[in-house]
Structures are given as C-alpha cells and as structure tokens.
Amino acid sequence: MTTPLTCRNYIDGQWLSAASGATLESRNPANKHEVVATFPRSASVDVDTAVAAARQAYRSWRLVPAPARAEYIFKVGELLSKYKEELAQLMSREMGKPLTEARGDVQEGIDCAFYSAAEGRRLFGQTTPSEMPNKFAMTVRMPIGVCALITPWNFPIAIPCWKAMPALVCGNTIILKPAEDTPACATKLVEIFAEAGLPPGVINLVHGVGEEVGKALVAHAGVDLVSFTGSSETGAEVGATCGRTHKRVCLEMGGKNAQIVMEDADLELALDGAVWGAFGTTGQRCTATSRLILHRDIKEKFTAMFKERTSKLRLGVGTDPNTDVGPIINERQLQRVSKYLDIAREEGAIVLMGGEIASEGELQHGYFFQPTILDRVIPQMRVAQEEIFGPVVALIEVSSFDEAISVLNDTNYGLSSSIYTRDINRAFVAMRDLEAGITYINGPTIGAEVHLPFGGVKHTGNGHREAGTTALDIFTEWKTVYVDFSGSLQRAQIDNRE
Questions:
Q1: 116 is a domain residue
Q2: pLDDT tens digits, residue range 130-141?
Q3: Distance between CA 293 and CA 283 in Å, rounded?
Q4: How far apart are CA 54 and CA 56, in angstroms?
Q5: Alpha-carbon gap, residue 184 to 166, rounded angstroms
Q6: Can you tell me the distance from the alpha carbon of 454 to that of 465, in angstroms, rounded to the nearest whole number?
Q7: Model confidence over 435-479: pLDDT tens digits?
Q8: Which residue, 52, 127, 179, 233, shows the most beta carbons closer than 10 Å to its own?
Q9: Is the dihedral of CA 315, 320, 324, 325 positive or negative?
Q10: Do 142 and 237 have their domain in common?
Q11: Euclidean distance between CA atoms 260 and 295, whole angstroms
C-alpha cells in the first residue's frame, strides 16, 4: 500500500478544501483496505464559488481566439502523453481496470486533445446567398457559457476529456464533477490542464456526492449547460431539472447492447468480439455486450466455444499484467450484479458458468465477480432488458435474421449494436434497421473512436452526440448574421414579388 493522495477542489486557479472541511475516501476496488485518496465532500457553497469563478473567467475566455484556445488543449495532449503511464497506474488502482485498458483510456484522452485542438481552426459556420440584392448572410458558432460536466467512474480520463476539450475550444468555461469512486484520476487530469497554463477559472473541479454536488450544479442558475454521463434513471432527473430551468442538456446514459451471430458468421472472429465485448472493463461499459443473440444453427457450437474461452479469463488485480478481468467498482455495484443473478435464476435462466462473487485467495480483499454466462434467456426476462453493468452476458437463441433484428431492438435502450455475418445484404439491412446510435459489422459492441459521434437512441440519450464534430453542436449556439449593404430598407418576410 502507498500513502493516500490528498485531493482538493480546483477553483479559480486555487486548490481548496471543501468549505465545511468534510472529506471522503476513495478505495482500491481490488483491495478495499487500501485508501487511494481522500477528497472533499463539497456542498452547494463550494458549487457557488466554482460557478462564480467560471462565470467571471468566461468574460475573457470567450474572447480568446479559438486557435489560441486550441493551443492550450494541444499542450494538454502533450502532457497526457508525458504522464500516460503514471495516469494508467493510478487508474488501475483507483478504478480497477487492467493496465492495458487503463493505458487505452488515457490514449483516448490524448487522441481527443489533438482532435479537439484541430477544431480550433475549423469552427466552421456557413455562408449562404441572401434572397435580396446587396445583402450578405452567414452563420457563426458562439460559446454557451458555463458548462457543468458530470462524469462516471468507468472511463475517468477519457470521458472528462470528451466533454472538457471541445467545450473549452468552443470558448466555454467548465466545472468538472467527477464520480466519487475516481477523484484521484480527476485531480491528476485537472493538474495537467493547470500545467498547460489555462487561465484561472476556465477549468474548475468540484468533488463530492452526486446527490449533493451534482444536484446543486444541475439546478444552479449560473450554469448554462449540463453534460451528464451515467444511468438512465439519474439522467431523467437531470433532464427534467434542465427542462424546468431552460438549460441545454446532453445526456449519455445506459445500454443493453447485443451482438448478433448469424449462421454464416466467422465464428472465431465472432468469439473474439463476444469475449472482449462482454468482459472487457469487467462489463462496466455502457457499450458492453450484455446479450448474445445466436442463430439456432450455430448456437450449440458457439456456446461451447464461448464457454471454453471464458473459462480461461484470469480474474485479478488490474495492475497485474496477467489479469484479464478486474474488480467491480464497489460493494454496492457488486451486490447489484449478484442480485441480478438471483433474478436470472428465478426467471428460469441457466447459469452456464460463473454466477458468484469471487472470494478465493487475494480476491477476498476486493469486489470481484466471476465472468458469467446465462443460457436459455428469453427476451422478456429482466436480465435481457435491464442494464446490469457487470461481467454477465445472456445467450438468446433465434431462428432467423428477422427475429435477430427484432430481439436486438426489443429493449428501452439503443446505444451500441453488432452483427457478425458474411452476407453483405444482411449487413446493410442491419445498418438500416438496428435501433442504435452505433452499429458494428463484424466487430464487437465496444471500441468507439474520438472523431466519430458517440451516443444512442431511446433511453440511452436525448439526441445529442459526444465526440466528433457533433460535439461542437453541444457546446456552441448558432448565430445567424445578416449584413445589408444596399443602403436602403429591404424587408424580408414581406411579399416583395409583383
């Protein structure tokens, strides 16, 4: 064990304790006896201070040319590269994911930095002909103001970067509220932004409990935009509050993603995708493969292949290079996953393998759950409809391509989808008919790239997309500008034609 880190809020360029002095602890999910960090239990008064700082800084930050704002973000990308291994090691201890995945999490932040920095010279508007002579018409992008970024624990570097970097390039100021489980990762990330030289108040960090700090941020009159990633239940509350207070809101929420394996699929390739999609990040991804929809002609063979491969996965501490599957994030989530196994058994599903909390040897000190395969699942079961967020995958048998599409679409979620087939016609029908924001052909449900839009439909999101150029539409307002150089009154929206 190492000495716990002391995290603080970062407000107006200063590292501060909560006004109350109260603190909380972040523990290593692979060893619950190890305190990784202490951090402030902030309250509404701390939120007030951060919002005031962000509003003050916005007055000048919005006037910094976008290419110059982007240079700060480019510098952040260079610093993330410098501290990549340090961040990955910290993330693996604090969040639990294997080091290879933690490095990928940081790399996604690096990629986002360089991509967002390039947008500083491409914040394109439009020019268009006016319907009148001697009149010019164009659109430009304007920043929105103060943005509250509420982020989860499963990607403690990548997701804050997805939100913060385009927001800052667009001219907004931000307040980051990270998950209670990963305050040390958020602190190190903000230290990097500070090292890059961003002016005081442009980026602010407020730690605390969601019901206290998150709720205060969402309701605060000085916050102009809320970008939230988390559960659909909490997202609905965030959306309702923002609706009442006329804030812009971007919601990225749950998923119940499925991979279809048709009878003509390359089964070895589909197997690679299924194992990675179901058990990568211990199933703690909004894009994780929670359902495997298998054509009856290959169901038995593929199930045997999947079971055999899953049995070889090594459960353990994320910092161990031999680990394939790390811990569940905390005790509450561990019990939630375990409860869903009780529900599965009650509903008539068969546990092919796993299904229990893992407590042998060193695993007893952490929050580990065995990689689990459920068979004889039908679409109406709760384990086929509700997000579990753990290393649990349900096998569902279908008899046709049409049935596979129907079963995949039969949930309240619509984030990521996947189909393995060699039939190009089926592939294109799937691209058209699968109800999801993301569709993979012959690839797993996980693995987004930062230059493409990310988000989903139905209960997964509210129509906005993170990443790619679509992120600019979240963090900017469109302004239409007319320049009339005719020297006379010209009236639009009047019938000027004889």
A1: yes
A2: 999 999 999 999
A3: 17
A4: 5
A5: 23
A6: 5
A7: 999 999 999 999 989 999 999 999 999 989 999 999 999 999 999
A8: 179
A9: positive
A10: yes
A11: 8
pTM: 0.96
Decide: 396 and 292 in contact? Cβ < 8 Å.
yes
Dist. CA 273–CA 276, nearest whole Å: 5
HEC assignment per residue over 224-248: CEEEEECCHHHHHHHHHHHHHHCCE
74: phi then psi, degrees, rounded to nearest 5: -60, -40
Looking at the structure, tell me whether residues 202 and 269 fall in a common domain. no
User: Residue 338: left if φ>0, alpha if ψ -120 to 50, beta else—which one?
Assistant: alpha
Our answer to whether residue 286 is catalytic in this structure is yes
Has residue 80 been placed in a domain? yes
Which residue is listed with tokens 């509003």? 55
Residues 265, 370, single domain; the answer is: yes
Q: Are the CB atoms for 277 and 418 separated by under 8 Å?
A: yes
**140 closest CA partner among 483, 477, 485:** 477
Which of 94, 108, 180, 252 is flagged as catalytic? Answer: 252
φ/ψ of 39, rounded to 5, equals: -150, 160
342 and 416 inside one domain: yes
Catalytic site residue from 112, 147, 170, 286: 286
One domain, residues 325 and 244: no
Name the domain count of the chain.
2
CATH code of 199's domain: 3.40.605.10
Residues 266 and 244 in one domain: no
Q: Closest Cα to residue 36, out of 319, 335, 320, 321?
A: 319
Residue 250 falls in the annotated catalytic set:
no
Per the structure, the complete domain to which residue 45 belongs is given by: 5-253+461-480
